[in-house]
Amino acid sequence: MIRKSLTVLVIDENHIRASIIEAGLREAGHEQVTVLHDVAGIARRIAEIEPDVIVIDLENPNRDMLENMFQLSRVVKRPIAMFVDRSDQASIEAAVEAGVSAYVVDGLRQERVKPILDMAISRFNAFSRMARELEEARSELEDRKVIDRAKGILMRSRCLSEDAAYALLRKTAMNQNRKISEIAQSLVTAAGLLDSGES
Amino acid sequence: MAAEHQINAGFMPLFDSAVLVAAKEIGFAAREGVDLTLSRETSWANIRDRIAIGHFDLAHMLGPMPIACNLGLTPLASDTIVPFSLGLGGNCVTVSNTLWAGMAEHGALPDLDPARAGKALGALIRERANAGRDPLRFAVVHPHSGHNYELRYWLAACGIDPSREIEIVIVPPPFMADALAAGRIDGYCAGEPWNSASVVAGTGHIATVKATIWKTSPEKVVGVRKAWAEKHPEALSALLRALHHAARWCQDPANRGELAALMAQPSFLGLSPALQMPILTGHLALGGGAELTVEDFFLAFGKAANFPWKSHALWFYTQMVRWGQVKHSAAHMALARDTYRPDLYRAALKPLGVALPGANAKVEGALTAATPVGSAGASLVLGPDGFFDGRIFDPDRIDEYLAVRDWAML
């Protein structure tokens, strides 16, 4: 007997993260996946889609509205409960830490839903890691720009070579136990102040 | 000196988180040896979840929320206790300009009188029903909230059946003003500054306020994970003392400017300091140029505002029963009563020699004027605490209270 595949609804205001989740669900063989980015008219959509599982990001301020709607089964036809079962503390913690929550229709067996939640947790974590790495790359680029400007100032004002200017920044940073980019930023700020004083 | 106690707390961006915020930012917590970490949350569901899994030891909560948790009415419910109340009052019922104009035609005046406003609203609702129009849609912030219960209490006492004659939906407080302006809802009951936000935007009118529906009535509380409280009684006591000092500081008119500026910061409310002033002064712009000063509009400290009255817990419980959220039983009633813990409040504050109420519960609605009451060693004033319809809530006679059927509900 072939089991009817589960219908999954993903509610996430973050479009990129939502498509990462959607891709993961499709790779896992779930073909009936709907993604919603905002909750306008959500009651009607849920009534149309009749999802077995609803995955939602914890940053969404509409969770209270959704939970209230799930409890009034008049709107959504079938009662929906929060997935996280008291017996599975590890899953709850992993989900909250990853920033995701799931709701399932009453009576759906836990082992059918757990792989979906596990997948969502790992994809949410992967997304956070990616966002963090992007942020790090961005700040590294900013650091490099400010260091270049500081080197330029030193090269002009003290007639140093590029290497010597960098060595001076590095030595100062080591002596003061600070990051090179911080020393560079101080220098750029100070130079800016002196310049505007002259003009 | 390193802090003796580390405490993690969650809060929602609402003005009545002020006592927690001031405890941290003005230094009252540090003075009691508490290193308090505050995390802003986006939903009450998140607060409940993070309490349950231990991310938070305690949190800013809606007064009925810990009771709903203990009664098992919510998912991921964990045993939660209430040793401190974060204030009395502070909510309003705000309606769209269109609805206000309709209510005014039926006799509503900009005087915040709940009976007059309710009568006008009832007449308008019947007129709409006769014309075959859709029912009005009101929003509250959560099904287990003072907002939901006071809105329903007000309507029912004015002969309007809130379950049938209007629709009640849930909207997060920061979205209320937008939903009203966009016409998705016709009115809402929410805490400040989200009512003044609609008035300032010119898209709403304050029809009545919590402080006139039920004077000096309970609102937000500090909900504490019971298991944590039992394991860390000294940390909890130290925090309660810090909150006591913070609440007194918040209530002092001399600190209004500083408090408004603090709450205006992006990490707390992220709204202009001017928008924080109505709740601090009780002087409200109602819309359409009308202004009114409401006595005891919001009390952060005075009139035993921080005392977790068991009669408050029990009144919330009666409303859960009344609106079909839970079945009435002796066991359920005991769970609700035991959620609020005046004993912990007393134990923490006794060393300070401050005024403490003599009882753990009171007959709500019995005081028609401010009344000095006997307390342990210092003076304390309570009330007026009346309901606008004159009903009395005696926590020792709950069956009788629940047995009275409202004529509108027949």
TrEMBL record, chain A:
It holds the Pfam family ANTAR. InterPro entries: ANTAR, CheY-like_superfamily, Sig_transdc_resp-reg_antiterm, Sig_transdc_resp-reg_receiver, WH-like_DNA-bd_sf. Residues 7-121 form the Response regulatory domain. Signal peptide: none annotated. Residues 124-151 form a coiled coil. Residues 127-188 form the ANTAR domain. Keywords: Coiled coil, Phosphoprotein. The modification 4-aspartylphosphate is found at D57. The keyword Phosphoprotein applies. The keyword Lipid metabolism does not apply. This is Response regulator NasT. It comes from Mesorhizobium escarrei. The lineage of its organism: Bacteria, Pseudomonadati, Pseudomonadota, Alphaproteobacteria, Hyphomicrobiales.
UniProtKB/TrEMBL annotation, chain B:
InterPro entries: NrtA/CpmA_ABC-bd_dom. This is Nitrate ABC transporter, nitrate-binding protein. Its main location: membrane. Keywords: Cell inner membrane, Cell membrane, Membrane, Transport. It comes from Mesorhizobium escarrei. It is found in: Endomembrane system. It comes from the Bacteria. The lineage of its organism: Bacteria, Pseudomonadati, Pseudomonadota, Alphaproteobacteria, Hyphomicrobiales. Gene3D superfamilies: Periplasmic binding protein-like II (3.40.190.10).
